[in-house]
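Operator note (shift B, R.M.): manual run for Dynactin subunit 6 requested after the automated queue skipped it. Running by hand, logging everything below so the morning shift can see what happened. Input copied straight from the record, untouched. If output looks odd, do not overwrite the archive copy; leave it for review.
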Amino acid sequence: MTTRPNPPYRTSTTKSSGPSLQTTPTTLLSPSATLTGPHPISLGANVIIQIRARLYSTYGPLTLSENCIISERASVGFLSPPTSLPTSPPISTTTQPSGIDNNEPPSTTLAPGVLIESGAVTEAASIGAYTIIEAGARIGKGAKIGERCKICAGVVVGEGVVVGDGIVVSGEWVGGVQEGGEEDGVCRVKGEGGEGAGGMC
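Run finished. Output pasted below as returned.
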């Protein structure tokens, strides 16, 4: 009895009929992945796009730096027209006043080593190096996630939220007004040091 081979991965030598696609010889792109949109998509060295993953460049270019992994059924890129984007660097966990330069399409950039786990959906403007977005999490439009963060499974990060470096975000949701009357966009972050501290999910 013969073993059914795994489906091959496309590399930079494979022609694609979707968006303008830039890859490297070490990029691995599943044939069942979906690439949609008129703007360029750039996949760096050792990027892995797994089965049924979805990449969207409908509203602006999409860049995945080296060593990023997009797991099965995960989605990266804006799904609807963005209404606002953060203007400040990711120095805290809060929503920043913002606006869009209508002359420039909003870009989506994943820094090196980002892992997007199965079924997660991100419409973030940027995700910092070595950040993990766990299974089923959702990142709102225009959010900025810092380096070495962990967004725990099932968490929802609100539109325009900025998450600082090294923060672990857990809880049922992130963004909006929390109990106690805190301002919009303040994330619920829990860890060994209490609310606002880092820690394991």
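Quick read of the result: The radius of gyration is 17 Å. The chain has a mean pLDDT of 78.
Leaving this for review. - R.M.
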